[in-house]
Amino acid sequence: MSSNQKEDLIGKWSVEKLELLGKYLAAYLKILTNQSWCQGYEYIDAFAGTGKPKTRDEQKFVDGSPRIALNLSPSFTQYHFIEQTDWRVEKLQKLHKEFPSHSITIYHGDSNRILREQILPQMPYASKKRAIAFIDPFGMEFQWQTMENLAAIKTVEIVLNFPVMAINRGVLRKNPQMISESAKTRLEQFWGTVDWMVDLYEDEQTLFGPETVKRKLSGKEFGRVFKKRLEEIFPHCSNPVLMANSKNAPLYCLIFAGHNANGKKIAEQIFAKHEKDKQ
Ligand SMILES: C[S@@+](CC[C@H](N)C(=O)[O-])C[C@H]1O[C@@H](n2cnc3c(N)ncnc32)[C@H](O)[C@@H]1O
Predict the structure, then answer these.
(1) Which of 42, 153, 161, 162 can pair with 136 through a Cys bridge, CB separation 3.0 to 4.6 Å?
(2) pTM of the full structure
(3) 110 and 20 in contact (C-beta within 8 Å)?
């Protein structure tokens, strides 16, 4: 199949995710464009995709996260799009022609490395720049070390798509001894500590004595556990908003984290309205 024929198919939950992202970015721009001290407000898409996924149900192309950010007015002063796969990068390149007046850089490779080596060094605190990073991996591709670097420079806030199902189904087992070493390593890099066992497992009394078993957490509770982790490095983290599939299985949680209390408040208002509208 040529790269032109390939596309990403997304479910309704991804469309909802994109709507929430768009609302938060619009609010972010409204606030930042009024700050005369600010020397640039930038958008980082750490897992950019193609820029135009197709809905699974209606087979309709919709704007992916890069286009959602690019279509906002006022615009960001700079756009950083990171994507690892060749064919998706090829599709992203079209954005230069489509948005000639926007300052767009497309990075081809691993977002951890590119953020640490190329993007974050451009926005130290003294630069008076601010950025919002959308972190939307399929699974556990984002490393805690990168999250720490990102939090430490204090100029970047994040909207994280926390991969509930990828961790729940892809790694965790009722009995932790059944988890493969490679899955443990991936989770450790994502969680940033071997303490994920403490966070996600508990001791249970059985006829044969105490046994360590997986905690029974709802999707949202799972998101809250990771929120606690984020609170160790970001002062303001929102409550998670859960995205579930058509069978109500928890897929992921969106969580805001940053250095600004107002950012958290706005994210929580947007998330709460979404939850209310869905009832
Ligand atoms: C969930 S999709 C992103 C969708 C996109 N944010 C949107 O809303 O339209 C995840 C993307 O991350 C890319 N990816 C996976 N691992 C990566 C890595 N380590 N660095 C950069 N991109 C990666 C995948 O190729 C895929 O396009």
Answers:
(1) 161
(2) 0.96
(3) no
Atom from ligand 1 closest to the CA of residue 111: 20
Alpha carbons 194 and 199: distance in angstroms, whole number = 10
The CATH number assigned to the domain holding 91 equals 3.40.50.150
pLDDT tens digits along 105-117: 999 999 999 999 9
**3 pLDDT more than 80:** no
Quote the radius of gyration of the chain (alpha carbons, Å): 19
With 70 as the cut, is the pLDDT of residue 162 above it? Answer: yes
Domain assignment of residue 139, given as a range: 9-163+219-278
Contacts 24+ apart (CB under 8 A), 18-21: 18/62, 18/63, 18/64, 18/65, 18/68, 19/274, 20/241, 20/254, 20/270, 20/271, 20/274, 21/65, 21/68, 21/134, 21/159, 21/254
Tokens of 69: 């950010």
Do the domain assignments include residue 226?
yes
Phi-psi label, residue 59: left if phi above 0, alpha if psi -120 to 50, beta otherwise: left
> For residue 238, what is the enclosing H or E element?
none
Average pLDDT over residues 42-67: 97
Interval 196-243: pLDDT, tens:
888 888 998 888 888 888 889 999 999 999 999 999 999 999 999 999
Residue from 138, 140, 165 whose mutation best tests the ligand 1 pocket (most atoms within 8 A of CB): 138
* Ligand 1 neighbour 137 (Cβ under 6 A): yes
DSSP class of residue 75 equals: P
